[in-house]
Amino acid sequence: MIDTLYRDIISPDVNLVGAIFKLLLSMLLGAAIGFERRRKGQIAGLRTFALIAMGATMAMLVSIYIPQEYLGLKNGDPGRIAAQVVSGVGFLGAGAIIQMKGSVRGLTTAAGIWMTACIGLGVGAGMYLITTVATLLIIFVLVYIEKYEQRANFLWEHKVVRVKVHGIVRNLDNSLQVFRKYDVKASREYMKYNYEDNLTIINYVVLTKDTVSVTSLFDDLGACFDDPISITLTNEPNF
Q: Which helix (H) or strand (E) holds 165?
């Protein structure tokens, strides 16, 4: 009995026992990756990744089954249907990418979706050990490499600091010194003079880390101007 089940599971042909095992395994591997994404607050979580993995596995099973049953293994191409998964899942990954006021989010989740689909295809083809190792490597990348990036201060972000003040400001030296004090790299400044209302709007394009104290930075930045109205941290210049 056990020998028969084992032979069905490892068989390259599509059979009931092997197909059920492959779907269950792809569901578990996909859910493991989805759990990590959900833990980070991403919308795509356990159910999404589990379904992606199972869907790709099902596509691989159909790819193998059709030439096996109708064409003969030597005359069919088991990779034709599966090949469409690799390109088609890109549309699903694109849906996970959100562009919000110049800031792009979801690229890692989209890459995880694509890799999870590949894992599903691998499970459908019977590559159990390889897909399990690949799942562990994905979780390692998502969890531990991110922690390394945080410790190594690799997580720089492009931001825009928008300052609105009364009067016409012509000298920005003091404000640029404040950015240097907080290790914030100001790469460009966009200025708008409103002579009618006697206002100046300055947009500083900066490269900053998430460890910077925004409140302290704003306090020191506001002290550089005689009559500041507002200071805003955003993702794109706004006049």
A: strand 156-166
